[in-house]
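Re-run requested by the PI after the first attempt was lost when the workstation crashed. Everything re-entered from the original request form. Ligand of interest: NAP.
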Amino acid sequence: MHKLGIMGGTFDPIHYGHLVAAEMARAEFNLNKVLFIPTGIPPHKDRRDISAGELRLEMVESAIQDNPAFTSSAMEIEREGPSYTVETLRLLRKNWPDYELYFITGTDALREIFSWREAEEILTMIQFIGAARPGFDASDFLLKVQKEHPEILGRIHSLEVPALAISSTDIRMRVKRGEPIRYLLPEGVRQLIQQRGLYAE
Ligand code: NAP
């Protein structure tokens, strides 16, 4: 069976931490492709604080263009209403029938998974890769899984990604304060941020 990595995230903006996480996951789990899916309307966030989906997708497309294993999808951005991961996964299972699905996201996001819509259903559908910042301790989350859902423990994987010391929040704050962001993200993304006047006051 082939393996498809799904990079789920807001990507506001995408940066080298995300790209390194996707590439490390691809290599470690032998993923044939990694599909970046920027969240349309995050169910758990105030949408006014988030850049337009089209802009976030444009930045993702620019960032991944030189990696033949990486591709992107506008499916969540084009879908009406909040972007529930369970709906995305159902569609992906239909569109990629010969692929085992690996959902890659930040460990901080993953530890909230029990509050996601149809969490039980999601947990039976796919494998999870939690990309962790250096020093992040996932033991409390794994203990909770072991206690409450031991059957899925084997499907939750953790990946320490030193480059995740970079964060989208920090990049937005830097732009706002007029500080440099060069080398934290691909140059094409930096230029898009500048051209579109993103994150400035
Ligand atoms: P978030 O709360 O913005 O991010 C949590 C942390 O994880 C941040 O530190 C973030 O760093 C990092 N992160 C996010 N995506 C990452 C990725 N793909 N690889 C590595 N690190 C990542 O989380 P989010 O981006 O809104 O949501 C993550 C995914 O979970 C999305 O696909 C979202 O749709 C899904 N989700 C679904 C539900 C639901 O179905 N009800 C609820 C919540 C989340 P940066 O800020 O630097 O990115």
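Saved to the shared folder this time. The pocket of NAP is lined by residues 7-10, 17-18, 21, 39, 42-44, 83-85, 104-106, 108-109, 116-117, 131, 164, 167-169 (CB under 6 Å).
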